[in-house]
Amino acid sequence: MAVTRQPALELADAFAQRFPQSLALASRAATVFPGGVTHDSRHFAPFAVAVDRAQGARKWTVDGHELVDYWMGHGALLLGHNDPAVAAAVQAQLGRGTHYGASHALELAWGELVLRLVPSAERVRFTSSGTEATLMALRLARAFTGRSKVVKFHGHFHGWHDYVAYGVSPPFDAPNSAGIPAETLSTVLLAPPNDLAAVRAHLDARDDVAAVLLEPGGGSNGLVPPDLDFLGGLRALTAERGVVLIFDEVITGFRYAPGGAQQRYGITPDLTTMAKILAGGLPGGAVAGRADILEYLDYHDDPRWNRHGRASHQGTFNGNPLSAAAAIACLTQVASGEPNRKADAIAEELRAGLKGVLQRRSLPGWVNGESSVFHIVLAEPGLTPPGTPADVFRLTRGPVANALRQAMLIEGVDLMHTGAIVSAAHTSADVAFTLDAFDRALTRLEAAGVLPLE
Ligand code: PMP
Question: What number does the ligand 1 atom closest to the CA of 252 have?
């Protein structure tokens, strides 16, 4: 890669000049938070931009600059920031209490909505996050099958707990974190994405596989796109072997369709994990699926079952009333499919426009994605889409990606890494602004010697 030192530093200088108050906050944060941030994904060089407020598709930095936002609350905000109905529902609930330490009607209405919208959901249990949802799904699959191993795929992300922090980014045979016991890692069997033969080989070789877990929209939020024949084959194979198929719909749920990727693709998993849009932009997650599997959370008139047979589950904020209020206000809108259609259409406009900019400038690369999610991959000549997981990770998380995001922030757009999560609040005017910003950002990258790649 041809990064000439001096001009690349100029990009960082321009960034620092543009966001001085963010820099001041980042300096303070570095003495409070390890890494200066509260989520690994928000770690950014030379420093993270800090946001003061947000509305619709926009957010404003503490430096006073308006940004078109493509993070959308890490994907939680299909309706955009501060959707009026969601905000009103949360405000109304605030006056009625934020935690009852008891069952309540709102959590029930929320659960009924999930059952109505998500095709595979016969029962649901709420958690507080997506990480907790995948943790619970694995526990349920293990309780149900009496087996211990889980197959997951290179590049697929399922939260940060020990059972899934493996095979997420290259090198795929190394855990994604220090501090995970080797015994735990040995419960995970990895397979390349979209490789049915590799999954079959695991299932042929052993009889202790409880579950296959995957992001149905493709690994790392669609960065490694799914193959629909593979998904269908995986459904048939897992059903045949009595292995629990878990769709992690934390991103795709209520986004790819009101009923998630399983509705869009017409493939029904045994269990589904959800979060983000599920809770209307507030904290919350869930596991839903077959009644005979979720039944492992049920109580029987049998002390032995209750103590030794069932799967236990606690969580102070499960089914929280504020989250339930936001969720109902959000999911009742999602039920019409209109927010999904709007966000999908804007994302398609963006994908076409961004590809056009790359073509006009004769820059190699591609734009990946479907529904309201996509990734821009600036590639070396000769690489073709979709690329290997190792290539797309290198190109969307490395120095080129960092420079692109810096340049886009300077130009008024906050890309999610090199990609975007689009909301129903984004408009064609946002598309036009973003395409101009992308063109100007690429000019900056050429001037900085970051592009073209060789
Ligand atoms: N699964 C997927 C597919 C995700 O994208 C995420 C979060 N980005 C998670 C699980 C974890 O969710 P949370 O951050 O709520 O723990």
Answer: 3
Q: 166 CB less than 6 Å from ligand 1?
A: no
- CA dist 440 and 249 (Å) reads 35
Cα 372 to ligand 1 centre (Å): 17
Average pLDDT, consecutive stretches of 10 residues, N- to C-terminus, the chain (454 residues) = 55 96 98 97 96 98 98 98 98 98 98 98 98 98 98 97 97 96 98 98 98 96 93 98 98 98 98 98 98 98 97 98 98 98 98 98 95 96 91 92 97 97 98 98 95 91
221 lines ligand 1 (CB under 6 A): yes
Q: How far is the CA of 130 from the centre of ligand 1 (A)?
A: 5
**250 C-alpha vs ligand 1 centroid, how far in Å?**
6
Q: Tokens in use for 417?
A: 């890494």
Q: Which residue segments constitute the domains of the chain, with CATH numbers given?
A: 10-81+338-447 (3.90.1150.10), 84-334 (3.40.640.10)
Instruction: Record the pTM.
Output: 0.97
Distance 216 CA to ligand 1 centre (A): 13
